[in-house]
Amino acid sequence: MTSAFPYNHIACCVDGSAAARVALEEAIRLRAMGPGRLSIVHVATAPTLIGSSRFATGHESFFQTAREWLDALTASVPGAEGVLMWGHPATQVEQWARETECDLLIAASHTGAVERTLLGGFSRTLAHHAPCPLLLTRPRPPSDIAAAVDHSGRLFADAEHALTLDAAWSPEHLLLAAVARRVIASLGHRAAERGIEARGRATASADLGTPGAAPSLDAVRVGIDVEVVPEPDAALLAALLGSAERDTCWALPLARPVQFGWRVNGREVERR
User: Which domain holds residue 225?
Assistant: First the structure.
């Protein structure tokens, strides 16, 4: 039986921008609608090195940094494969999509002014030369928030909502609290989009790195215990939990990967 879903191989073009995150979210949503591959594609190009080989002197570290960044991003999307290339972004993606017979390319609809000047407009070039359908996503409208701390240690949200903490609250505790709160808030938001209620609690813990050195969070672990009503099927539940994890990692990037452990409606849920 032939699948009704038309795309066997979706590829999403990413960089480090918030607009690219929106594009990846859409790629993940579409991929979840049917079987097939999801490739996360990044072209490493330093502005001063356009057209040059990644093997030139001094370029190896730049390419390695891009590899590590893409590997971490790909690891956060179960089942996805990372594709790293070097050179002119639109040209490289076009050639790769043609060679791999990609069914659908997804990209953010714009780049910054510098990228447009140097690269000629990535999405515009793809729109004219892509060998397959191209879906361009629009960035979310910007919104600004602010947080401040005064000399006494009081915290302020948007300059007016004060929160006073006792001395036991270190900056590292605040970061862990943010991780725990973010994953619960994200799950609640993602579930509500599907008409599902999700609520519960989360505990984040971490190692403090080398004794005697400046505190640094290492091996961050988050345990989440939630009720989800009505409970979705296994595929949808996995998608919701995965979205909450990705939202948390993107909103609060940490130096090390975050390990999530889920308990849903009283049962442990294994995550790959």
Answer: 171-269
